[in-house]
Amino acid sequence: RILPCLQELYNLFYINNVKVIPYNLFDLINYHVLAIWIMADGTRTYNGLTLQVQSFTIQEVVFIINVFIIKFDIDCSIHYQRSQPVIYIKAKSMDKIRASLDPYILPSMKYKIMRKD
Description:
The chain has five helices and six strands.
């Protein structure tokens, strides 16, 4: 049993059972979606945040970063963990988007977006 709306999303993010970034990510992502992504795959790194995106190609990670820069005006870069790319969102950018993310973050996950100091 599958809900048709979930099947549509699955079809955007999986092609031949391989996870991909859809070409229309810019249209799909907003602060709510970013908050869910952070809760699922985000790791607080100092006062910044690392998004675990190791399952994507370097080209897809560059594409995601470009979407983040244009859509959210955030400063982020590619880092590597165990030779796999991850996205690091810098502390100043977390300060900038924290208020927009906060309404969507579950209380038990708020530590991922809060400053350590």
